[in-house]
Amino acid sequence: MATPPAAALPADDPRTIIANNPMRLRQMIAVGMCFLLNALDGFDVLAITFAAPGIAKSWQIEPGAIGFVIAIGLAGMVVGSLTLGGFADRIGRRKQIILSLVVMTAGMFASAYAPDIMVLSALRFVTGLGLGAMLASINAMAAEFANKERRDLSVSIMAAGYPVGGVLGGAMAAYLLKIHGWEAVFIFGGIATLVTIPLVLLLLPESIGWLATVNRSDSLARINTILRRIGHPEAKQIAPTEGPKTSAATLFNPIFRTTTIALIIMYGAHMITFYYALGWAPSLVASLGFDQSSASMVSVYMNMGGAVGGFVLGYLTPRMGLKPMLIIGMGGAAIAVAAFGAVPPQLVMLQAAAVVLGFLSNGSVVGLYALMARAYPTALRAGGTGMVIGCGRIGAAFGPLIAGQLLAMDAGRTTTSLVLALGSVVAALTLILIPVRGLRQEDTSA
């Protein structure tokens, strides 16, 4: 039996208080912290793509080897999401986020001192473990600190942090690559991640929605402490619910099976296209004869478009509906990726194409995160998100790897882009053909 929606809970239950009252400043700050954490995710994931041209030149390695390094980092995210993502439903969102940041910090700093491609690959895998675990937590946290009216927007804001991290981090990477080696990109990422840990401790309280689902004697007291700090009235009770417990079996039971499978297919297929574009854009542009800094800036333009796309989708979803926005976004992303592969080797045209591609592809990712937050109740939200991201990012790992092999076989930029665009086509068709929980607002669980 799914957890009842907030409207079915008593008015003095903390989930009802959060759902039905206007968002306070501290709630907005909590969502803002999730945005910042996802920006770190965006930079850390893309650090290897920013550094890739320099690594290839320094170590004299082929495109296939760079594709392997990118893929192994994404594989770490898969393992982190599947094995660690669900722990946030057990130990709490905040604790999971802090542990993830510690792992990410260590992995980023160590990557700067990797002596060869195999060690770097292993360190990118470790960093990916932290990234995968954290993303499931911040997606749930953003949804659970938002009220009912602003939940989709809050998740969209959180998800838009990813390309913003790519923009700011990419601009910094482009600057660092002018005066330092590729190692400086990872050192910068490690410092930025380390600085975030005390900010989380200071500004990001534990999720009230999660605290309400755990059967602890001090849960109500802890919730009321947070509610007072936020500026809401105290809760008088935590209404008992028969919510589902986090497990793979629950995510694939008759209530959630179709939704979980459809989300995995959609997310995984779209990630094949999305991470091909993000992962290979700098190297593709560099192969056309442009310098490393210019190549990295094309990735920055792509992320600028992605940031705008995320905010625009979050704004339009309540007005136009999540399903049509996702279909337009994923279908458009397929066309944009194919077009990027056919753009003439002129920097301005490549930058313009990158903006459009980022707008459509990342806007679709934002919509998928909003759909994950809607599709699962609180007790399953982090675990369900982790399952979808973990299984789905298998596609993310294969995208850059397939592209590397195609390019190594001299398939060319145009043909490779056409092949990798098919991922977003599959994602859009899946959404059209398969019913998914959460597409209607009334399907949303508390």
CATH superfamily: MFS general substrate transporter like domains
Q: Determine the mean pLDDT.
A: 83
Give the CA-based shape. Answer: globular
Give the CA-CA distance, first to last residue. 13 Å
What class do helices, strands and sheet pairing give? mainly alpha
- Profile the largest sheet: none
> What share of residues is helical?
over 70%
CATH architectural group: Up-down Bundle
Rg of Cα set: 21 Å
Beta percentage is under 5%
Q: In total, how many domains does the architecture comprise?
A: 1
Secondary structure tally, helices: 18
- Give the SSE string: HHHHHHHHHHHHHHHHHH
CATH topology: Growth Hormone, Chain: A
Task: Explain the overall architecture.
The chain contains 18 helices and no strands. α3 (63-83) packs across α6 and α12 (257-287) packs antiparallel against α18. Mean pLDDT is 83; it is low at 1-7 and 441-445. It has a single domain (6-443), classed as Growth Hormone, Chain: A (Up-down Bundle). 78% of the residues lie in helices and 0% in strands. The protein is mostly helical. The relative contact order is 0.17.
